Input
Amino acid sequence: MAPYAPLALFLAVLSSLVLSALGSPFLPVPTQLSRLSRPGAAVARRQDDAQPVFPEQPPSCPICAQNFGSIDSCAQAAPVLANFSMIIFNPGAFIDVIKCACADTFQSAYPQCVDCFTQTNQTQFLNSDNLPSVVEGLRNVCALESTLLGGAATADGEFTPTSSGKSMNDNNAIAGPSCATPAPSRKRAWVPGSVTNMYSAAKRRRMSFADDVDRDFRARTPEVEAGGKVNVADRFISAPKDNIIPLQTTPRTQRIAKVFGLADERVLKYTDTNLEPSTNSFLGRHRFNYYQLLKKPHKVPPTSAEAHLGARKQFVLALDGPGIPSDLFAYPISWSARNSIAVACGKDVYYQNLDTRAISHLFKLPPNRGKLITIEWSPKEPNLLAAGTSNGDIQLWDTDTTKQVMGWQEEAFVDVGGMSWCDRTLAVGLGDGAIMLYDNRRPYPIGRIESHKDKVHGLRWRHDGTYLASSDQQGVVQIWDARASKSLSAGDRWRSKMKHNAPVKALAWCPWKPELLATGTMYPDGKIRIWNINTTPAAAPATQLITLNTSVTSLLWSPHSKELLSTHGMSWQPRAGASESCPDFPHDVGPNSRARRARDRERPASVKTPLTNSLTVHAYPSLRRVVSVPAHTGAVGHSCLGPDGTKVFTICPVEEAMKMWQVWGVAEAGERRESVFDKCTIR
Output
């Protein structure tokens, strides 16, 4: 009731004043209460009468003695009951009145005290004949509060048996009519000789039912063990409750029992907690066989990797690639829309038409021009291939004419990182953290973004060309908004940076849910994170996370099914916890220093797991591992998706080989239902 106390007090005051103003029998005319409205009379009564006496007989006296404090607090609040104008000068007393009228303890103990004081000739401690009537009116206020505030106050009382095991009805029957205390005429007069007159008809039925259930339960209770559990059980009948004591006698005891876990709202329990688990292996085999009969077969979608790569865990085609760059951050392979696969071998670039199996040599770098790092086909013009070198040289070649059509040279001669095409615009990441934008029809750059502080490893345009994602060596991923113009700048960044605990190379936009961006980290983080760029707040963690403890070198979304493919390199076992990242060593720490040796002990230990050097497919959004196959004997450097969206090429610098995998399938085109509108034409 704590959060609603001010509102409850206001409602109580408002209700009482309105009802009294209307002349309702809510507050009867005070008789003997008028003498209590005078503070001097109350003090005199306390000095003369002192404290009441509670003998052992009748049985109601010991029960009244335990809770007489609440009755006494009500007596002290009696002046407020007689004159509500005192609320203005003493609001604390009115709070005591509300507590008195709404407390379960007072409602249960007051009939016992009436019986005790009547039989022992101590009626002066009852204060007034009108006190029960006034309290009954305040209980109506509590009921109103409970209705408006959702159970803020308890309006119904609780039945408390006497120490002799008999109810107050039995004690009052012995006392006879002399125990009755006169009360003013009301629509419903309260008589102490009958305790249940205090309560509503529904409450009396609930109390009577609880009494009958208790007696019937004790008559039918089976044998009980020392732990309080029934030692009989029938597997064809719902299991009995653990505790055989009836706890649903009143609403208050039911609430307390639920808090302490001694009762619940379920009537039937289909698990028998009284018996230990069965150790019968014969019965267990029967249960397993019966479960197999009822289990529905797992239906594999025809487009899923489980139906293709899971059924045949072998590559479809293998090609040699001598001189492939050994750097796992390189992009030495690319697949064009014409179904041609290109590969960078040292200083040479070769491509093969997979339809005709014809192999062609495109070009070779001249001496002193570095080595090839990245190649990328243009999706709009599949005859154009862009190539970047370690000296910052960017070339654009036409495979139809076998000629270079455009070239750009970085002034700082920094190495090239990731590349990504959007229509005719080529985004290139550089080793100094800059992102260059080129148009394949212009000999000069059309934009430059300087925001990253380390080499830009990953660049990916979204399929609609509205956003560009970039990642660097420090694990910072940024998104650039290109909806206004393709000429991006540092001020076009979308929201805040997405930070990781390791370098990020793998980036992938989801084709069927464009707001999803998947990122993969290298050593020593080894996790896949899926971000929703529309709902993820600033500096918030990723929407979904897959912990692999394996380097993630590339990511590919399937265009035909809700699955994500990842390629991997080395695996490790964290020594300082799964989330511990490898610390960066300062330059002044020697290889034999104590600090260096202590940090080496904290570095993750390299291990071999099923994910090492593998090709793995994950389901979305469950992130369930659909299938995982060992792709190469060494780390998978990069992967690319075919034009049909079902095949994937992987490359391994250690093996100097490329492999093609049938990962997904194409959904079967269903027969189109003939519509009524197909037979009609609109002129």
In short: The mean pLDDT is 74. The chain has 15 helices and 29 strands. The first strand starts at residue 317 and ends at 320. Residues 201-220 form the longest helix (20 residues).
